[in-house]
Amino acid sequence: MSLEPYNIMSQTINISRVKESNIKSLDFNNIPLGTTFTDHMFICDFEEGRWVNPRIEPLHLIPTHPAAMALHYGQAIFEGMKATKDTDGTPMLFRPEKNAARLNFSADRMGMPAFPEDLFVEALKQLVALEQDWIPPFDGSALYLRPFIYADEPFIGMRAATHYKFIIIASPSGPFFSKPIKLLAETKYIRAAHGGTGEAKAAGNYAAAIRPTEIAKTKGYDQVLWLDAKEFHYIQEVGTMNIFFKIDGKFITPSLDGAILHGITRMSVIELLRDKGYEVTERPITIEEIVDASRKGTLEEAFGTGTAVAIAMIQEIGYKDTKIHVSDENPVSEMVLNTLNGIRSGKMEDHFGWMVRIEKELV
Ligand SMILES: Cc1ncc(COP(=O)(O)O)c(C=O)c1O
Asked: Band of the pLDDT at 200, cuts 50, 70, 90?
């Protein structure tokens, strides 16, 4: 292999197709969550300091050496995004360049190699073009895309791996009718501390959240509301969502302080609300401030933002012995949800220029 640097885009993505698609086994009216995968996957290897051999292959198991470093030292990062269809049936991606940039932000924090952002978008386009029949046709449904990188070098010892795999798998997801959720503000466990990995979409962040989330569920809550690691005072984010509050007609959301994931839905909702004339402030927010606003009757709405659900209305927040009742009516949150879904399904004009249309005949 040449050791000269080269532009990976000059390499074509080799495609080998399945002989027969598995799509016949899918009931679009009843898609099991997270367990159905499309026929193909994208793979690229990192070897000798560069990404090589980008390819789309039939979905298959990946042989794993028991000393693969991701299994031991946790060098594993991922992204989550969705493909939908425009009203004319053209597949579309929502702001894929933002996911490409965030993947590389995560890679940098975790000592992993950056993946070429143009190849990231191209790989998604080609995979989605090939799998477009798997995009569910209903409003609010989508083809969920999961790009990820992990260290597959077999090595026992603490250092950055020298071999990685970048893979994209795709899983159809049905319409997500999210009922208003209840959050438990966590006062024992933390998700992320300043200087830690909270800003990266690192697999280990999610591992650390599993046990506290299970405990919150046994208490009747849907998700954990994470507070800051030092004082358990400042609101960070929710499970797999960022959080917004509407108090006295104005929106606030925690500022990106180094411990919070830079949500792409969060960024889009800030633009959308401002475009609709709402004031949105990014600043530190204490949990006591929310308790106070609820007592005064100025807490009007609260919602989570994330790729999986777009917008999840928050009904109640448990904090120590207090239950903060938020609201049963969420007119602005519903407008935001309908606008996001409308833009994603091509039924509303995308005047922000967020959607990237994919040529149906790309492959
Ligand atoms: C911890 C966390 N926060 C926030 C989000 C929302 O990010 P996005 O809007 O990019 O999906 C996610 C989901 O990716 C997440 O896992």
From this structure: very high
